[in-house]
Design brief:
This protein has 3 helices and 3 strands. The protein is mostly helical. It folds into 2 domains: 58 residues, no CATH class; 53 residues. It has a 3-stranded antiparallel sheet, with no helix packed on it. It is elongated, with a radius of gyration of 18 Å.
């Protein structure tokens, strides 16, 4: 498994050259664990809804909508979506390519490369 790359300001992780907002590090470990468990339950519900959808169950659309809403709620509670959890005024660059952000030079320096123009 690769080492997780975290931006110097601790706002993002980098996955395949793209920024993804981190969970709020100010959450207590117990609260974070409960939210992660909630998120995993919701993701399993999405998977189950896909199964019943393939089976042609008429309740599949409602089940999928509810499951995806729960995933979104859990991710928002974790701080990965919705309003940013940091207070330094930095913009939300979630899902941006690193090379197109103020982190470009920092990221290039990790690999000894030149930043993109």
């Amino acid at each position: 498994m690769r080492e997780v790359i975290i931006t110097p300001d601790l706002h993002y992780i980098v996955v395949r050259d793209r920024l993804w907002r981190r969970a709020n590090p100010h959450l207590s470990e117990e609260h974070r664990a409960a939210l992660v468990a909630r998120l995993m339950d919701a993701r399993r519900a999405v998977k189950a809804a896909k199964v019943i959808e393939r089976a042609g169950d008429p309740e599949a659309a409602a089940a999928m909508k509810a499951a995806r809403a729960e995933v979104n709620a859990a991710k928002t509670a974790l701080g990965e979506r919705g309003p940013v959890w940091w207070t330094d005024g930095a913009p939300d660059l979630n899902r941006h390519l690193v090379r197109n952000t103020p982190y470009a030079a920092w990221f290039a320096s990790l690999n000894g490369a030149e930043p993109a123009p």
